[in-house]
Amino acid sequence: YSHFKSKHCSLHSADSISTMITTSFHQSPLPMPANPFTSGGNSMLSPSCVRFRQSGSFSVAATSYSTSVATCVPVPASFYEILGIPIGATIEEIKAAYRRLVRVYHPDAAAIDLKDSYADEFMKIRASYCTLSDPNKRAQYDRSLYPRRRTGNL
């Protein structure tokens, strides 16, 4: 779970809890029946519970059963959040944020016991910078964050 910046946690009390876990930058949860183990006479989750999209993102549906369960669903951080900059940041602001974070999270600057976690953070910072510093990649990324809604009028 090291590629997620934050988690949304909540406590649920019920006999059956359906939990949606979505690992993509634009969330699109799958529809889940109330009890997938009994609906339609199927005793197991069907392969239709996992759907892959051409965009490279994916969603996974999971169901857990318990009387009291703490559910933590990771929320992926955007490249802007990783660099700590606003969406409309200039290239100079992107470079400055990248340089500031690299000085802190570069694996060579980390204590021995933190090298692995710093390496993970550094890779996220580097990927964010590579995407946001290239105007074409940034435009494509921004479109993936805010996909257009299709209407019948277009």
Automatic annotation (TrEMBL):
Species of provenance: Solanum stoloniferum
Domain of life, source organism: Eukaryota
PROSITE patterns assigned to the protein according to its UniProt record, in alphabetical order: DNAJ_2 (PS50076)
J domain boundaries: 78-145
Coiled coil: none
SMART domains: DnaJ
InterPro entries, per the entry: Diphthamide-biosynth_chaperone, DnaJ_domain, J_dom_sf
Matches recorded under PANTHER family: DNAJ DOMAIN (PROKARYOTIC HEAT SHOCK PROTEIN)-RELATED (PTHR44240), J DOMAIN-CONTAINING PROTEIN (PTHR44240:SF10)
Protein name: J domain-containing protein
CDD domains reported for this sequence: DnaJ
